[in-house]
């Protein structure tokens, strides 16, 4: 029960990594708020978890309505009297429009960056207001390995994630005296339904050649890192950019080809 009675709010929480985080925090004793646009779907998930003895509630958040990042925090605090942990899990990109520097419009670039950064900046700013009064808290930003390893596409998305990594460090430094910690978790290729269904087998096979652990990560493995950062076990950990990617980007760039060579150099 590492998060016993802590109030945790998770954005984009009805599926994938977000849902795994909700379940992991609930199992550790937290009161978890699922921030979602589809409250009906979130309510179904919450009921299922509550029937198992957990404490999960819902709160409205539309990633494209910036005022809801304030209202979701305020509603959770109004109900519980505090917020201990904020998990900024939302992130978006249109892969058909978010391409490379040659083929991405400035409007698409800026809109994607604005949406993704707003989801972290506005919610964190409001949570910090209450955490400061409550003696501290933990903010965990779900970034991406693409935020530290340059990609050949998704220029807007990866720029936003790189910015979130630096924003994480700024929050950590500027709020440490208020006992507020801020860290980022960077998933690599993770076996969410969106990834499993949205990528071709050929691409997945190619990508996995460059992951030393030789498999996709599981959403629960990302959630396990989040639970640690949310808990008092990480009381001395702040400003860290932690990749959970199976070692992607760690080895030589020709790793994927060298590992299959039959001859030794």
UniProtKB/TrEMBL annotation:
<dbReference type="InterPro" id="IPR036291">
    <property type="entry name" value="NAD(P)-bd_dom_sf"/>
</dbReference>
<dbReference type="InterPro" id="IPR050259">
    <property type="entry name" value="SDR"/>
</dbReference>
<keyword id="KW-0443">Lipid metabolism</keyword>
<dbReference type="Pfam" id="PF13561">
    <property type="entry name" value="adh_short_C2"/>
</dbReference>
<dbReference type="InterPro" id="IPR002347">
    <property type="entry name" value="SDR_fam"/>
</dbReference>
<protein>
    <submittedName>
        <fullName>SDR family oxidoreductase</fullName>
    </submittedName>
</protein>
<comment type="similarity">
    <text>Belongs to the short-chain dehydrogenases/reductases (SDR) family.</text>
</comment>
<dbReference type="InterPro" id="IPR020904">
    <property type="entry name" value="Sc_DH/Rdtase_CS"/>
</dbReference>
<keyword id="KW-0753">Steroid metabolism</keyword>
């Amino acid at each position: 029960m590492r998060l016993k009675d802590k109030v945790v709010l998770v954005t984009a929480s009805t599926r994938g990594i977000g849902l795994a985080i909700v379940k992991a925090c609930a199992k550790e004793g937290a009161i978890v708020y699922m921030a979602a646009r589809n409250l009906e779907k979130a309510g179904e998930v919450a009921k299922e978890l509550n029937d198992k003895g957990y404490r999960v509630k819902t709160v409205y958040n539309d990633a494209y309505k910036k005022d809801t990042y304030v209202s979701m925090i305020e509603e959770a605090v109004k109900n519980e009297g505090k917020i201990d942990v904020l998990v900024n899990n939302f992130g978006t990109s249109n892969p058909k429009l978010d391409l490379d520097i040659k083929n991405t419009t400035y409007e698409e670039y800026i809109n994607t960056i604005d949406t993704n950064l707003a989801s972290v900046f506005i919610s964190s700013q409001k949570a910090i207001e209450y955490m400061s009064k409550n003696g501290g808290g933990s903010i965990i930003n779900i970034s991406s390995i693409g935020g530290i390893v340059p990609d050949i596409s998704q220029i807007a998305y990866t720029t936003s994630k790189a910015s979130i990594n630096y924003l994480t460090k700024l929050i950590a430094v500027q709020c440490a005296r208020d006992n507020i910690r801020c860290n980022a978790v960077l998933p690599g290729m993770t076996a969410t339904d969106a990834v499993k269904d949205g990528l071709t087998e050929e691409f997945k096979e190619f990508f996995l050649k460059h992951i030393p652990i030789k498999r996709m990560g599981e959403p629960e493995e990302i959630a396990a890192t989040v639970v640690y950062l949310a808990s008092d076990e990480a009381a001395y950990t702040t400003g860290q950019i932690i990749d959970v990617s199976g070692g992607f980007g760690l080895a030589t760039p020709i790793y994927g080809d060298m590992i299959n060579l039959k001859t030794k150099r």
